[in-house]
Design brief:
With about 250 residues, the chain is α/β, with parallel strands linked by helices. Helix content is about 45%, strand content about 5%. Strand 3, helix 4 and strand 4 form a beta-alpha-beta unit. Helix 2 packs across helix 10 and helix 6 packs across helix 10.
């Protein structure tokens, strides 16, 4: 059992953890297509990997931290037309996140850190909206913004990172059995920036230029890159929590 898995505790153990001013780390992901080579739960795998590593580092620093169950459903409109995606409305997602954040704070967590791996703009807007309504004890290192984005891989900075080298490497690091390797190694590069396509008003992966729901270069992915990227992603959460924890304690 993962010692930092909140849902594995009994209610009495949870009470002890809350009395110790614990930090909640909440993974946010999606169920949506990630090319023909990655599972629908790709964002959840990545968010949980970020959260688990951050919890391990924080506990080693004597900051008690627990990983909550991932929230799997959100806005996934860019994947419209592909089988498998589950999409909610932006308002519904924002309200849901706000309710979850408030519940965790009212329960007694010192703060709530968001480990987010789904990058659709409306989803990120929903997180920020809920964060603003719940106050500064909600910590959200948004990897789409500076300074965080600049710490990540070249493919990520180019915006070619949906099911490409960036995300495929992360899944290879944490759930290699779920990567369809025989497909991955055959996929041609799709060097299209989602960031630019979004700015140009494109509303779906197909409009953006991908008929198979991936961008970038999945053939170049490696588990080693994934492990290094996880260290960076977890480090972002740790940095923000450590800075905030000094203030709230």
């Amino acid at each position: 059992m993962n010692a930092y898995r909140w849902a594995s505790l009994t209610y009495e153990e949870a009470a002890v953890a809350l009395a110790a001013h614990s930090v909640a780390i909440l993974p946010l992901g999606s169920i949506e297509p990630h090319g023909p080579h990655l599972p629908l739960e790709t964002d959840i795998i990545i968010a949980e990997g970020m959260a688990r590593r951050a919890a391990e580092i924080l506990n080693a620093k004597n900051i008690p931290a627990f990983v909550l169950p991932a929230i799997p459903f959100t806005v996934t409109e860019f994947a419209h037309g592909f089988p498998g995606g589950v999409s909610l409305g932006n308002d519904a997602v924002g309200t849901y996140y706000e309710n979850v954040f408030r519940s965790l704070l009212e329960m007694g967590f010192a703060c709530v850190a968001i480990a987010n791996a789904h990058l659709e703009p409306e989803h990120i807007q929903a997180i920020h909206s809920a964060q603003e309504k719940c106050g500064n004890r909600i910590i959200f290192p948004d990897i789409t913004l500076k300074p965080w984005a600049l710490q990540l891989t070249d493919e990520f900075k180019k915006g070619e990172c949906h099911a490409g080298q960036f995300e495929t490497s992360l899944v290879m690091a944490d759930a290699p059995a779920l990567v369809r390797e025989e497909i991955r190694i055959t996929l041609p590069d799709i060097p299209i920036s989602l960031s630019k396509a979004i700015r140009d008003g494109k509303k779906s992966f197909v409009e953006m230029g991908s008929a198979r729901a991936y961008f970038g270069t999945p053939r170049s992915a490696t588990a080693e890159e994934g492990r290094k990227t996880f260290e960076i992603l977890a480090g972002m959460i740790v940095e923000e929590v450590v800075n905030k924890y000094k203030i709230i304690r």
